[in-house]
């Protein structure tokens, strides 16, 4: 075979793998709830902090889950049981919460909410233990809020009680309510994509990163991933940042003050091992939308869920299907980060991206993409 | 290994870890209390304790807290196949936070993870935790639970935040109560009653002289601690006649093991100065 033939073969193989083999459009709500079996509930506090719960079920039972925990300052519950070698194969809900490690208390409220509905891992005698992996972000004491005001048991109970399918509110809500991101207001964002063969992938994220989601000119890193005009015709910024814009503090206020936490979900049936791989690939979506990410000061944690409506066997080679779902999950998570930043609203303490760069957002109709 | 008597280190849910440190070639004696509290800076609190009133029923579930107010470098080995845990990710050596303020062991299955909420509030009120600016702290409180709900009680009786708060407020140095207390109150082990136990050793040879290692464990295992003749597997590790036992007769009946719904959780501590990687 000549060298040119090798190149041609390599080109064909690469294009088969790299090109968007499956057409991509957002789902009807452009939200993680486009994945059948997924419901989302928020509870937002005042001052701004809160809890977001993602419920997952198939035929009333939990679904397979995995996690990628890459940030250096995590606060988590029940991530050990997600390891593929461990016994429990299902997850009933994921809790994302503000409040730093204190906010892990929200998961206890979610557990009570689910137990009241008979949802959980059966342990005999008709009793259940709900499986509720959880991650928190740091937001206490921001903007003059009392440090001891933070999500507790009742936040989780309320967020779980409010969970439903359909559109998902974004911006200063739930786990994203008190979030900040690289010098601007952070928030809660969600997105979805519909691939060939009925495969749906969705993401939800609370963006509270040390790193920034935009470059030195103010252009969002993940803007090129836009589908169907969902970012509202952002105008590329040609010049530098506006006068008076404060660069993100290298280590805002000291230590341990950030974290981005997310859930991705697909309607494909996954094993725990596959869900773990999807979570790892989805995590790259954070790295493409936020710079830097997974720092010592971020507890970045990404969960993945497979709600089992489509069998993996129906998609052909499972490794290739995993590759496509994981790739899509990364892009969906990047887009959800952009939605979080564009939906965030200015507070007395942080400007939103769109208030900082009104030119970039001038064609954007608020909520137009949803 | 350098030593620093003012610091102490945790490793929770570990079994193999201590055995590596405690080589048989080192002379050993138990500490004065034969308890994890022989390690300087380590305090233990249980909730509930058995009532002094002999007519009141024994506790059926509970929480045990191991506290290091100054913070101790921590690590974890999570090997069981059905864990319920909090804050184990932050213990990985590459992660930022170095020191642990307390480890919570609790009954209640995953519901019992709520006990750590109470321990956090208890420590925050004492200003104990990772400083996050403005004089505020976030207590670092890794936790593990065991399954005991529904044994001799309704399923909804289990440790909550108030158990953790009470156990933390009761934490102190000195002797540690064992048996049907704290996280061991509702424990079962291989067909017999499980419980809470503690022990310590003081190394007295050469460079290791003065190193103290302690352990505390809630034994709720599907496996048995004794063989078909009823003899303890770990009986040979006895120091200073601490297990005053008489051998079994051939007619004693050994109960069968139980399956599912178990878990053994433990903390070991030493006064040796460790890195997170060494604690792991």
Structure in words:
The complex is a heterodimer of chains A (370) and B (280). Chain A is of the alpha+beta class and 370 residues long. Chain A has one domain: L-amino peptidase D-ALA esterase/amidase (4-Layer Sandwich). In chain A, 23% of the residues lie in helices and 19% in strands. Chain A has helices at residues 3-18, 106-116, 153-161, 272-289, 318-343, 353-356, and strands at residues 38-44, 50-56, 64-69, 76-77, 93-97, 121-122, 128-129, 134-136, 180-181, 184-185, 187-194, 200-207, 261-268, 301-310. Chain A is globular. Chain B is an alpha+beta fold. Chain B has a single domain (9-242, 254-279), classed as L-amino peptidase D-ALA esterase/amidase (4-Layer Sandwich), CATH 3.60.70. Chain B has 4 helices and 14 strands. In chain B, helix 2 crosses helix 3. Chain B is globular. In chain B, 51% of the residues are buried. Chain A binds chain B through residues 69, 72-81, 85-88, 100-102, 104-105, 107-108, 111, 115, 123-125, 127, 129-132, 138, 140-141, 147-148, 152-153, 253-257, 296-297, 299, 301, and chain B through 78, 81-90, 94-97, 109-111, 113-114, 116-117, 120, 124, 130-134, 136, 138-141, 147, 149-150, 155, 160-161, 261.
In short:
The complex is a heterodimer of chains A (370) and B (280). Chain A has 370 residues and is α+β, with helices and mostly antiparallel strands.
What is the CATH fold-level name of chain A?
L-amino peptidase D-ALA esterase/amidase
Named CATH architecture of chain A: 4-Layer Sandwich
CATH topology of chain B: L-amino peptidase D-ALA esterase/amidase
CATH homologous superfamily grouping of chain A: L-amino peptidase D-ALA esterase/amidase
CATH superfamily of chain B: L-amino peptidase D-ALA esterase/amidase
Strand portion of chain B, in percent?
15-25%
- Overall radius of gyration of chain B: 18 Å
Q: What's the overall average pLDDT of chain B, rounded?
A: 87
- CATH class group of chain B: Alpha Beta
CATH architecture of chain B: 4-Layer Sandwich
What is the oligomer described by this structure?
heterodimer
Structural class of chain A: alpha+beta
């Amino acid at each position: 075979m000549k060298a040119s033939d090798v190149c041609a073969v390599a080109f064909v193989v690469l294009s088969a793998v790299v090109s968007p083999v499956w057409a991509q459009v957002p789902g009807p709500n452009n939200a993680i709830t486009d994945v059948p079996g997924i419901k989302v509930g928020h509870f937002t506090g005042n001052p701004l902090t809160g809890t977001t719960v993602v419920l997952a079920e198939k035929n009333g039972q939990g679904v397979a889950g995995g996690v990628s925990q890459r940030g250096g300052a995590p606060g988590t519950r029940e991530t050990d049981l997600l390891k593929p070698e461990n016994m429990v194969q299902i997850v009933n809900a994921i809790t994302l919460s503000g409040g730093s490690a204190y906010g892990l208390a929200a998961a206890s409220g979610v557990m009570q909410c689910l137990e009241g509905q008979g949802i959980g891992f059966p342990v005999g005698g008709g009793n259940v233990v709900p499986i509720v992996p959880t991650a928190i972000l740091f937001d206490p004491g921001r903007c003059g809020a009392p440090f001891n005001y933070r999500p507790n048991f009742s936040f989780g109970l309320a967020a779980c009680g409010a969970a439903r399918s359909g559109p998902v509110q974004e911006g200063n809500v739930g786990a994203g309510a008190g979030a900040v991101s690289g010098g601007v207001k952070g928030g809660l964002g969600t997105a979805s994509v519909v691939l060939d063969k009925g495969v749906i992938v969705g993401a939800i994220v609370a963006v509270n990163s040390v790193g920034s989601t935009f470059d030195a000119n103010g252009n969002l890193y993940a803007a090129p991933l836009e589908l169907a005009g969902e970012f509202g015709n952002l105008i590329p910024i040609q010049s530098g940042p506006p006068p008076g814009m404060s660069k993100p503090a290298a280590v805002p206020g000291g230590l341990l003050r950030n974290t981005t936490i997310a859930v991705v979900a697909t309607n494909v049936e996954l094993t725990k091992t596959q869900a773990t791989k999807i979570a790892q690939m989805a995590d790259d979506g954070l790295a493409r939308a936020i710079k830097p990410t997974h720092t010592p000061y971020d507890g970045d944690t990404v969960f993945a869920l497979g709600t089992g409506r489509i069998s993996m066997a129906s998609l052909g080679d499972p490794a290739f299907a995993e590759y496509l779902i994981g790739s899509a999950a990364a892009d969906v998570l990047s887009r959800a980060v952009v939605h979080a930043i564009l939906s965030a609203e200015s507070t007395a303490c942080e400007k939103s991206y769109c208030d900082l760069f009104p030119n970039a957002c001038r064609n954007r109709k608020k909520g137009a993409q949803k | 290994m350098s030593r620093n008597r003012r610091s102490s280190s945790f490793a929770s849910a570990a079994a193999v870890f201590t055995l590596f440190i405690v080589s048989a070639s080192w002379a050993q004696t138990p500490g004065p209390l034969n308890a994890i509290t022989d390690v300087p800076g380590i305090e233990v609190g249980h909730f509930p304790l058995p009532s002094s009133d002999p007519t009141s029923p024994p506790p059926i579930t509970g929480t045990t807290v191991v506290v290091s107010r100054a913070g101790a470098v921590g690590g974890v080995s999570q090997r069981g196949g059905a864990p319920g845990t909090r804050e184990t990710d932050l213990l990985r050596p590459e992660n930022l936070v170095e020191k642990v303020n307390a480890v919570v062991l609790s009954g209640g299955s995953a519901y019992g993870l709520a006990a750590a909420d109470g321990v956090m509030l208890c420590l925050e009120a004492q200003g104990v935790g990772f400083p996050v600016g403005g004089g505020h702290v976030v207590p670092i409180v890794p936790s593990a639970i065991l399954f005991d709900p529904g044994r001799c009680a309704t399923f909804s009786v289990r440790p909550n935040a108030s158990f953790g708060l009470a156990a933390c407020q009761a934490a102190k140095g000195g002797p540690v109560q064992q048996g049907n207390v704290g996280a061991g109150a509702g424990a079962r082990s291989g067909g017999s009653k499980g419980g809470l136990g503690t022990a310590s050793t003081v190394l007295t040879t050469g460079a290791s002289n003065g190193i103290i290692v302690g352990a505390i464990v809630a034994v709720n295992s599907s496996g048995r601690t004794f063989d078909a003749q009823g003899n303890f597997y770990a009986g040979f590790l006895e120091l200073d006649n601490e297990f005053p036992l008489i051998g079994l007769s051939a007619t004693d009946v050994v109960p069968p093991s139980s399956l599912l719904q178990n878990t053994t959780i433990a903390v070991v501590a030493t006064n040796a100065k460790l890195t997170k990687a060494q604690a792991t």
